[in-house]
Amino acid sequence: TDAAPTPRTPFYVTTAIAYPNGVPHIGHAYEYISTDAIARFKRLDGFDVMFLTGTDEHGLKMQQTATKEGVPVVDLARRNSDVFQALDDTLKISYDRFIRTTDADHLEASRVLWERMQESGDIYLDTYAGWYSVRDEAFYTEAETTLAEDGSRVATETNTPVEWTEESTYFFRLSAYEDRLLELYENQPEFIAPATRRNEIVSFVKGGLKDLSISRTTFDWGVPVPGDPEHVMYVWVDALTNYLTGAGFPDVESERFQTFWPANLHIIGKDITRFHTVYWPAFLMSAGVELPRRVFVHGFLHNKGEKMSKSVGNVVDPVAMVDQYGLDAVRFFLLREISYGQDGSYSHESIVTRINADLANELGNLAQRSLSMVNKNCEATVPVPGPMSADDEALLVRADALVDAVRTHMDAQALHLALEEIWSLLGETNRYFSAQEPWVLRKTDPDRMATVLYVTIEVVRIVAILTQPVMPDATAKLLDQLGQSTDARTFADLGTRIRPGTALPKPAGVFPRYVEE
Ligand code: ME8
């Protein structure tokens, strides 16, 4: 009888859900690409991955944009949500579900979460009087605002306009969670990463927490408050709940919830750290739901170092970027160039440099040169290697150690270091290839040439397998050219060597140089 297959370890990863009040920009694309690389990496590493992304459709910002555009808010949400989903498809984002907060199961999840917080005695009715930024969908105390020169008031941190708001709302007893939150940051230091973000949040919470207004009565575009439909939930309450909806909440007995909750990783941008690392764990503690394991905060992308803004006119359309440079190049550039967790900058020049130096030269050339030599001189099959020299052995030992090094970086969300590690091996392999001069060996020692080519294409195979999460298309082509069937491309396949005698198709360049028009 067959042994029962070992169950794969689940891994639940999410992106923030974007406001579809406009179309996506490159910052959104960056978040989706980076999270997708993490999800793909985990799948190739044998995990049972669930990857959730989507759109955050309620709230005043959506309502006001719709009014300004003269369209019903449901239509605005649908139209732009579709654009976000189309972007995901263009970027080959391998999500398992694209959630919309107007989905029926999400309304149900939000209702139940609210009821559970209410049952805990953490929700009470009062009057909110304070400042509100529609752009940030956030409440600010007067101390968190500044008077601008023209006499208008803005949120100091985000420089967005705030308006005075006074209405009857429900409050969440956030102040009661101060100690428990600090305990969480203390006992589970990996809950917030990078550490700089963690430190910021710890000092914010130590500064004292005020109860949070969690409903609105002056507009109705939101999830109705259970038992009091004059109120809609504050958009962040229902937005954060999307992560639970994706796991099947409120059906906590379901296989999905049992498998995937708590989420392993929430990926978010730096402007929404407080919502995810203060409000969200407090809501879950109140509702008696287990907390996610980790929130990783990525930085902001700047165009040539300048903040993107519609008024400056430097908002880059990610689809145009993909049209210009190609998808794999854009994905590679963003993940290799920017230290994940810090702000980063992009420019035409820096993208072209990465394409030509890292992709076309270091990887493309090496693959093309070694594979064409195999094609011409080894009857287009993987050659049989002879005895290994010390150089051969050293290179293969290093290549075999790569997966562990890369995994360590990926588990810390150091995506840039994972790629740096891979490219450092490529540098070494290029030096090996030049030093061994297989094109000379072709005449002087064909057996030795066969060994050098074998070692080189074996390293290219290892690199291609490990780079799939970042460049799914180009690596698929490369693995085709290496004669690797589609079921021999996981990290488990790094444990065996490329098989001599494997027939190889005629190679063709996979990483073209970028040539200026
Ligand atoms: O905040 N660079 O939606 P959003 C990098 N609906 N990332 C950026 C960026 C930039 N220039 N600008 C924005 C929201 N982002 C909420 C989220 S989650 C329960 C609700 C990131 O459309 C931003 O930090 O304003 C966030 O992670 C994501 O894009 C969506 O931003």
UniProtKB/TrEMBL annotation:
NCBIfam families per UniProt: metG (TIGR00398), PRK12267.1 (NF008900)
- The Methionyl-tRNA synthetase anticodon-binding domain covers 382-512
Originating gene: metG
> What broad class of enzyme is this?
ligase
Q: Which keywords does this chain's UniProt record carry?
A: Aminoacyl-tRNA synthetase, ATP-binding, Cytoplasm, Ligase, Nucleotide-binding, Protein biosynthesis
This chain belongs to the protein called Methionine--tRNA ligase
Q: Give the reaction(s) catalysed.
A: tRNA(Met) + L-methionine + ATP = L-methionyl-tRNA(Met) + AMP + diphosphate
Q: Name one GO biological process term.
A: methionyl-tRNA aminoacylation
Q: Where is this motif: 'KMSKS' region?
A: 307-311
Region forming the signal peptide: none
Q: Quick one: a GO cellular component term?
A: cytoplasm
The record ties this protein, via SUPFAM superfamilies, to: Anticodon-binding domain of a subclass of class I aminoacyl-tRNA synthetases (SSF47323), Nucleotidylyl transferase (SSF52374)
Q: Aminoacyl-tRNA synthetase as a keyword?
A: yes
- Assembly and oligomerization: Monomer.
What is the role of this chain? Is required not only for elongation of protein synthesis but also for the initiation of all mRNA translation through initiator tRNA(fMet) aminoacylation.
A Pfam family for this UniProt protein?
Anticodon_3
Family affiliation = Belongs to the class-I aminoacyl-tRNA synthetase family. MetG type 2B subfamily.
Molecular function GO labels: ATP binding; methionine-tRNA ligase activity
The chain positions of domain Methionyl/Leucyl tRNA synthetase read 11-144, 159-370
